[in-house]
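Repro:
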Amino acid sequence: MTSGTAIQDGTAAPRPRRRLSARHREWIAGYLFILPDALGLLLFVGAPMLLSLSLGFFEVSGFGGYRFVGLANYRRMAADPLFLESLRITLAYVAMLVPGLYVSGLGLALLVHRRTRFAGLFRTLFFMPHMVSLVVVGLIWQVLLIDKIGVVSRLSAALGLGGLSWLGDPDLALFAIVGISVWFLMGYYMLIFLSGLQDIPREYHDAARIDGAGPVAAFRYITLPLLRPTSFFVLLVSTVTAVAGMQTFDLIYVMTKGGPANSTALAIYYIYEQAFQFGEYGYAAAMASVLVVILLALTGLLFLLTRGGRFNYD
């Protein structure tokens, strides 16, 4: 009767309100959860990056003066031997640090993965350096490596190596920085690999042991293939860390100041010098943009070689 009356009056009956499906509600809830982080990244990361890229086309005095110079900073960069040398040192640093962190992190994870009485203690000891301030780490290692009176120098002299000058020799300083960086970071990557090892079902290794496979064969054909996503994450994060110098700048600033003879002047440290010591903010911004491009290229190469964590060990 009500619907008939509505039709006779010329008014349409109200349609029932459509409710969102469970899938759409989950979709909306997910985006609402990541919205604060997305806004934070946009405000504190995206905006500064865009500002840095734009500053590369200006000459900035540091006192509010801006003068558009086009590609002059990039042409200057291409002819700057110190910047080109800093890129070479950075690539050498990446080539040593990334494999060192991968091998040391995986090795320590395999060592503490076994359920022994002191496994928890060893995990704590290996991770403990990562909990110390890098400035403190740099000062301690500077004392240990100081020529003639440092503990490491005395040990090298006792071993017949002639008391190597780890921080004073241009041929050794970068190796010292790499070694300290590996010592500082290996506990962090140990935990990442440890989580990956714990996700591997134990039944696989038990079946391989029953079939007569030894530890080496089990590691090669079971552990490594199942650690592909973890390995990719470790390689990606360590590469970004090495190129950007996020964990190395403090060490270089405290221990070597880029020396001796610019042998430890990574690109990030040279950019810092140009910006905050010489006031060349536009030139530093242009170099930083090139460093970002190099980082993106290395990341893309890593994705290409590993197929996004799907290694081929055959």
